[in-house]
Amino acid sequence: DNPAYEQPLVQAQHSAAGPARMALFERAERALGARMPYIPLYFYTADSLVKPWVRGWYPNLMDLHPARYITILQHTEH
Questions:
Q1: What is the count of structural domains for the chain?
Q2: What DSSP line would sit under the chain, residue for residue?
Q3: List of residues 6+ apart from 34 with CB closer than 8 A
Q4: Inside any domain, residue 12
Q5: Which of 11, 18, 50, 55 has minimal Cβ neighbours within 10 Å of its Cβ?
Q6: Which SUPFAM superfamilies match (predicted)?
Q7: Is 22 part of a structural domain of the chain?
């Protein structure tokens, strides 16, 4: 029961193909979209290169890494 959606569709059924008919379909689509929930179709990523001797660094959603939790083990780099 959405007259703002159904009315342009009925008009479009009785209209000839062309810009006016497409405008009716666009109006119906906007009315339908206004009542629909939005689902995000993307997500954030963060890539990091961390040496094996680094401890306390863990990936997280906010990509925040406080230095007080990170330690560097004694190592020799080749």
A1: 1
A2: --HHHHHHHHHHHTS-SSHHHHHHHHHHHHHHHHTSPP-------------TTEES----TT----GGG-EE------
A3: 4
A4: yes
A5: 18
A6: Periplasmic binding protein-like II
A7: yes
Query: So what's the pLDDT on residue 78?
Result: 67
Please report, to the nearest 10 degrees, the dihedral formed by the alpha carbons of residues 15, 19, 25, 31 taken in order: -120
Tens-of-pLDDT digits for all 78 residues of the chain? 899 999 999 999 999 999 999 999 999 999 998 988 878 788 778 889 999 999 999 998 888 999 999 999 998 876
> What type of residue sits at position 36?
M
Distances (CA, A) of 50 to 16, 47, 62, 68, 70: 62, 10, 17, 16, 11
* Matching residue, tokens 């990936």: 59
pTM score over 0.70: no
Expressed as residue numbers, the domain containing 20 is 3-34
